[in-house]
User: What shape does this take?
Amino acid sequence: TINGKVDQRALAAIVEASGAVEGELSPAQSKVAALFARLLKVSVTGPQMNFFESGGNSLLATRFVQLVERELGVQLDMSEFLQQPTIARIANYL
Assistant: This one.
């Protein structure tokens, strides 16, 4: 809230909404979504969430590809990522 207190009702709504999205994602999509959320500092909206439409830029794209390689053990081609930067598409590589 404006005075610095936690709005418990708003917090509960966010938790409930994020749980609904998690249920819609496959295990591979959930891993990619976690990287999206952490890097972009956003809530995941679904498997068709686009990296660049969610606030990503070329510098963050480079960091994302590095994170995928380091944390998920998959070599992601940057040109492939740039062509279709969605959670669902990237999860196909896992």
